[in-house]
Design goal:
The chain is an all-alpha fold. Helix content is 58%, strand content 0%. Helix 1 (24-43) packs antiparallel against helix 2 (47-65). The longest helix is centred in the middle third of the chain and has 20 residues, at 24-43. It is extended and about 50 Å long.
């Protein structure tokens, strides 16, 4: 028998897309938001979270630069 497990159900538009599914325009639009989030975490001395946001932004920039 084949069993399927539903892990999570989310409403359309209520979840964040995976980076690899974003268009170039969506990536470019997301960059300032990642920077702002990283800056906010940094101000709160939450350095690991800030580094994660900055790394995500850098990864997107690298993907855009390789095209």
């Amino acid at each position: 028998m084949l069993y399927t497990e539903i892990v999570n159900i989310e409403r359309a538009g209520s979840f964040e897309k995976e980076v690899w599914t974003l268009t170039d325009e969506e990536k470019i639009a997301k960059l300032p938001k990642l920077k702002e989030a990283g800056n906010e975490f940094f101000k709160q001395k939450r350095f690991a979270e800030a580094a994660d946001k900055y790394a995500e932004a850098i990864g997107m920039l690298e993907q855009l630069a390789m095209k």
